[in-house]
Amino acid sequence: MDMSTALNFEKLRERIRLRRIELKMTQDELAEQCDLSKEHICNIETGKSKPSAQALYDIAGALNLTVNDLVYDYDNASGKEFQLLIAELCAGCSQSEQKTLLSVLHTLKDHFPLLAYDYGGNK
Question: What residue spans define the domains of the chain?
Fold first, then answer.
């Protein structure tokens, strides 16, 4: 998976549907929280229509996610893709903000040993 390529709407719609189900939320409930019609939510989930940027933002909020959580497939990302995401995040930051982010990453790594291991238990 290359995170720099065009948005994969099939995966996006599936992530929306699965997260909604995980939260035990109906399409009606999601639609109401997003100020969209149930039909529009259904069409997004079935791939009949694509969400606008505003709809995507509203859906992510209603699902307690960020837009990035919906757009990027973090579970299947490679180390290089994560490095790219971190670099992109830092690109819009001042030097002071970059130092703060680096400090936070070091703190997380030092205080959460599980971060040193992948899900397979490899270092």
Answer: 9-75, 77-116
Which residues in the chain land under pLDDT 70? 1-6, 113-123
pTM for the structure as a whole = 0.63
Identify the residue whose tokens are 């549907």: 17
Comparing C-alpha atoms, which of 77, 61, 82, 60 is closest to residue 15?
60
The angle subtended at Cα 52 by Cα 47 and Cα 57, nearest 5°, is 105
What are 65-68's contacts with CB under 8 Å, separation 24+? Answer: 65/19
User: Which of 90, 118, 84, 79 lies closest to 3, judged by CA?
Assistant: 84
CATH homologous superfamily for 9-75? lambda repressor-like DNA-binding domains (1.10.260.40)
